[in-house]
Specification:
Helices cover 40% and strands 14% of the residues. By secondary structure, it is of the alpha/beta class. Strands 7-6-5-8-9 form a five-stranded parallel β-sheet. The longest helix is centred in the last third of the chain and has 34 residues. It is globular and about 65 Å long. The structure holds phosphoric acid mono(formamide)ester (CP). The site of phosphoric acid mono(formamide)ester has 9 residues, from helix 2. GO terms for molecular function: amino acid binding; aspartate carbamoyltransferase activity. Belongs to the aspartate/ornithine carbamoyltransferase superfamily. ATCase family. It catalyses: carbamoyl phosphate + L-aspartate = N-carbamoyl-L-aspartate + phosphate + H(+).
């Protein structure tokens, strides 16, 4: 692949390759010397048009640990604020010869559009409600390490599915790897068209969590609800928040996941989130750095090969 814009275009073998390469970086990141040179000489620009803690910091660390020159564009201080369009901003940066562009944008499809205008590798760090591919890959690596496999698992994705790019990318990835995925949440937040992904839909947490191997909780994305129905947090926690009683319906060794940012007491009880015997939320963050290192290494390899091929034809 030239870019990483979503999980949709990836073949299962490509997903497995990213996870296998990431495993090496998990080991490297646990050492005192965390550096290697897969991106030496390359320039990485991070452009985040939406807030981020985990994704932005892990992409920055990933690039630096691989030897890239990393620049974080401050979008608040950029000329976007003076009316410059996304495409003009991209063309301006493209003229500075970056090799990797990492982009988060509130509009679905914006990152794909930008990728068509530049001649470097583009990584989607989350576009609207569409895709968040590195999140799904890091979730997959976390599941594979915790469960010893990434196929034939029963996985419940719970909460605000309608507004979640994390849910969408995970649904696609977990389906490609032949898992059974259930969506659990209020009908207003779990659109029936998600059945097209081959998953079952439940509006009762206890039924939805029955005998699952993995419980993935999602935040209510109020910022994407456009004035539509927003449930009361107390009522939502009572019916759909993960607590010990509801988790008791899952398998005894089921793991609990959350991509963050987490709203304790809304979609998840803080004691469950902090329970190191069940929660793998901190492991997800750790896997995020390794997966982003792997994704950038693989794209950089393709970029170098295609540039060498082009330069070869020009001789
Ligand atoms: N999971 C995730 O994308 O978190 P951030 O918004 O903090 O990057």
């Amino acid at each position: 692949q030239k870019h990483l814009l979503g999980i949709e275009p990836l073949h299962p073998t490509e997903i497995t390759t990213v996870l296998d390469v990431a495993e090496r970086y998990v080991e490297q990141n646990r050492r005192t010397d965390k550096h290697s040179d897969a991106l030496r000489g390359l320039t990485q620009i991070n452009m985040f048009f939406e807030n981020s803690t985990r994704t932005q910091s892990s992409f920055e660390l990933a690039g630096k640990r691989l030897g890239a020159d990393v620049m974080n564009m401050s979008m608040q201080a950029s000329s976007i604020k003076k009316g410059e369009t996304l495409i003009d901003t991209a063309l301006t940066l493209n003229a500075m010869h970056p090799d990797l562009l990492v982009v988060r944008h509130p509009h679905s499809g914006a990152v794909d559009l930008l990728a068509q205008k530049v001649n470097c590798a583009v990584l989607n760090a989350g576009d609207g409600k569409h895709e968040h591919p590195t999140q799904a890959l890091l979730d997959a690596l976390t599941i594979r390490r915790a469960k010893g496999r990434l196929h034939r698992l029963n996985i419940a994705i719970c909460g605000d599915i309608a507004h979640s790019r994390v849910a969408r990318s995970n649904l696609i990835l977990l389906g490609k790897m032949e898992n059974r995925v259930r969506l659990v949440g209020p009908p207003t937040l779990v659109p029936q068209q998600f059945r097209e992904f081959g998953c079952e839909i439940y509006d009762d947490m206890r039924e939805g969590l029955q005998d699952v191997d993995v419980v993935m909780m999602l935040r209510l994305q109020k910022e994407r609800m456009d004035g539509g129905f927003i449930p009361s947090e107390r009522e939502y926690f009572y019916r759909y928040g993960l607590d010990g009683e509801k988790l008791g319906f899952a398998k005894p060794d089921a793991i609990v996941m959350h991509p963050g940012p987490m709203n304790r007491g809304v979609e998840i009880d803080g004691t469950i989130a902090d329970d190191i015997n069940r929660s793998v939320i901190q492991e997800q963050v750790e896997m995020g750095v390794a997966v982003r290192m792997a994704a950038m290494e693989l794209l950089a390899r393709n970029l170098r090969s295609s540039r060498e091929a082009t330069e070869g034809t020009m001789v």
